[in-house]
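A student in our group prepared the protein record below, which I am reviewing. Thanks in advance; the entry in question is below.
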Amino acid sequence: MKLSALKYYISSLPTLVGGVDFYRIPLLFLKKPVLLNIAGGYKIYVRNLLDVWTLKEVILDDNYYVKDISENTVVDVGSALGDFSILVSDNAKRVLAFDPDRGLIKLMRRNLKMNNVTNVETYQEAVTSLNELFSKYRLGYNCFVKVDCEGAEYGIFKNVSSHTLKKIDRIAFEIHFFNKGQRDKYRNLKKRLVEAGFKLTETPNPVHEYLRFLYASRV
């Protein structure tokens, strides 16, 4: 393990201990979803330790910069547990959550119900084109798009039109580098976003070199 990763894990312990029902985490070894109370009043069912870490990054660390969200519509591509959708549901008028995994969609709906969230639309669907998504669901302006889809982000944004991008105020990505070709695609993605008028902020993942966060906002 890299020294930087070890330091990150150690420094994260106070956040985890203070932010979740830490004493319930051992129940995960029973191989059943465990309900955790999260700081901020959220209640989320998780399946494993990776899910707990995701909650830490999304809700406690606010890695997607959404606590000041003002957009009318939020698109959650790769919604998984629904934690991000739940986090933004208080301030957004409409939230659309997409995930191709049937089991995750079921768990997300359970989490939405647990948190009394009624303005999130859930779709068991693999998003392949941002243009098609905006057209199919008739999305207008003032949108926030969050993307965490295990490397599919490059295909989703390939050939994205200026018309679609003009409807988006902010984009938050978890970027994946599973091969050299994806690093080339990442450079092209950044270039396209800058050309469309976005200011980019990159944050390296402290543990995994093949991951990073990319935040795009209107200049």
